[in-house]
Write a structure and sequence with these properties.
InterPro entries: Aldolase_class_II_sugar_metab, Aldolase_II/adducin_N, Aldolase_II/adducin_N_sf, OtnC. By secondary structure, the protein is α+β, with helices and mostly antiparallel strands. Helices cover 39% and strands 15% of the residues. It is globular. The structure holds 1,3-dihydroxyacetonephosphate and zinc ion (ZN). The site of 1,3-dihydroxyacetonephosphate (13P) has 12 residues, from loops.
C-alpha cells in the first residue's frame, strides 16, 4: 500500500474507533510502517479528526521528518517496530474496559485476561501488564520494549492497550478484540465462568497463522 493510501487508512480507522468510543478526547495514537520511515498521529490530536496531510512522519532513528509534531509516545511505537520486524502498524488506545481491567487487583501480570473466546485467543493470546509510567516517559517505552519481542499485545497499567499487527487492519482488529474481551471479563468476573482449555487454545494457535 502506498503512503497516500496508508494516510487515508489511519484517518478512516482512527475515526471509526473514535466514533465507537474506543478512545476519547485527545487520547490514543496510531502508527504505520512505510518503506522510507513511518507515520504517526500528531500529539494532542483527536483520532476522530485527523488530517491525512498533517500526520507526523519519522525516520528509524525516531527523528521527526515531516508533518505536525509527533505523539509523545513516539519512542514506544519505535520500540515496538525495532523489536518486531514483522509488525507493520501499532495502535494505542485508552479504551474504558481495558483500562478498568488494568487496575484490578490480584490479576496475573504475565497474562491479564483469560481466553474467554476463540477470537481473543487467535487475535490477542497472552497479554502481559506493563507497570505504570507516565505517558510519554522514556521508561514506558523501554518497559514496552522488554515485552515486545515476545508479545504483539500488552496492557499498560492505569493507561490502556498497545497492540501491533502485520498491518493497520490487523492491529485495529486485535485492539477491538482486546477491548471486547475486557468488557466480557468485567461482566463475568464476579461469577463462576469457564475459559477455553489450554488444549483448545493450542489448537487455535495451530489452526490460525500468527499475527
Ligand atoms: O495516548 C496518549 C498518551 O499516552 C496521547 O498522547 P499524544 O496526544 O501525544 O499522542
Ligand atoms: Zn495513552
Amino acid at each position: 500500500m502506498n503512503e497516500h493510501k496508508q494516510r487515508e487508512e489511519i484517518v478512516l480507522l482512527g475515526k471509526s474507533m473514535y466514533d465507537r468510543g474506543l478512545t476519547h478526547g485527545g487520547t490514543g495514537n496510531i502508527s504505520v510502517r512505510l518503506n522510507d520511515g513511518w507515520l504517526l498521529t500528531p500529539t494532542g490530536s483527536s483520532l476522530g479528526r485527523l488530517d491525512p496531510a498533517r500526520l507526523s512522519k519519522l525516520d528509524w532513528q525516531g527523528r521527526h521528518i515531516g508533518g505536525d509534531l509527533p505523539s509523545k509516545e513516539a519512542m514506544l511505537h519505535l520500540a515496538m517496530y525495532q523489536e518486531r520486524p514483522v509488525s507493520g502498524a501499532v495502535v494505542h488506545l485508552h479504551s474504558t474496559h481495558s483500562v478498568a481491567v488494568s487496575v484490578l487487583d490480584q490479576l496475573d501480570p504475565e497474562d491479564v485476561l483469560p481466553a474467554i473466546t476463540a477470537y481473543y485467543a487467535m487475535r490477542v493470546g497472552k497479554l502481559p501488564l506493563v507497570p505504570y509510567y507516565a505517558p510519554g516517559d522514556p521508561a514506558l517505552a523501554e518497559a514496552v520494549r522488554r515485552f515486545s519481542g515476545r508479545h504483539h499485545a500488552m496492557l499498560l497499567a492505569h493507561h490502556g492497550p498497545v497492540v501491533a499487527g502485520s498491518d493497520l487492519h490487523a492491529a485495529v482488529d486485535a485492539t477491538e478484540e482486546l477491548e471486547a474481551t475486557a468488557q466480557l471479563f468485567l461482566l463475568l468476573f464476579q461469577h463462576k465462568f469457564k475459559t477455553l482449555t489450554p488444549e483448545q487454545v493450542a489448537d487455535l494457535q495451530r489452526r490460525f497463522a500468527k499475527r
